[in-house]
Amino acid sequence: MLRNHLIISGVVQGVGFRMTAKQRANEVGVYGWVKNLPDGTVEIEVEGSKDKVNEFTEVIRKGPGGFIKVDHVEITTLDDPKGYSSFEVKL
């Protein structure tokens, strides 16, 4: 089990990023959450098998589609899985 914390910068707010991230997470089969931050970035915490978390992270790094433009993804690997059972959009 792998858990990553991501901070995504670029054109990532007001363009459907959170809902698209949730959709991609469900397609890949990873769990966690996504939320907008006041500084214009988006924060994601994601966990699952190493392969699936890496696949999801690569989708996010490339920009999951639409008007979304990802400039940078800061990735921190966390040691303790939380046992998420879904992927949520936090407000």
List keywords for this structure.
single chain; 91 residues; alpha+beta; Alpha-Beta Plaits; five-stranded mixed sheet; 5 strands; 27% helix; acylphosphatase activity; Acylphosphatase; EC 3.6.1.7
How is the secondary structure organized here?
Elements lengths: L1 E10 L5 H12 L2 E6 L5 E7 L1 H13 L6 E10 L8 E3 L2
Helix pairs in contact: 1-2
Catalytic activity: an acyl phosphate + H2O = a carboxylate + phosphate + H(+)
Keywords: Hydrolase
Protein name: Acylphosphatase
Description:
By secondary structure, the chain is of the alpha+beta class. It has one domain: Alpha-Beta Plaits. The chain has helices at residues 17-28, 50-62, and strands spanning 2-11, 31-36, 42-48, 69-78, 87-89. Helix 1 (17-28) packs antiparallel against helix 2 (50-62). The longest helix is centred in the middle third of the chain and has 13 residues, at 50-62. It is globular and about 30 Å long. The mean pLDDT is 96. Residues 3-91 form the Acylphosphatase-like domain. Belongs to the acylphosphatase family. InterPro entries: Acylphosphatase, Acylphosphatase-like_dom, Acylphosphatase-like_dom_sf, Acylphosphatase_CS. This is Acylphosphatase.
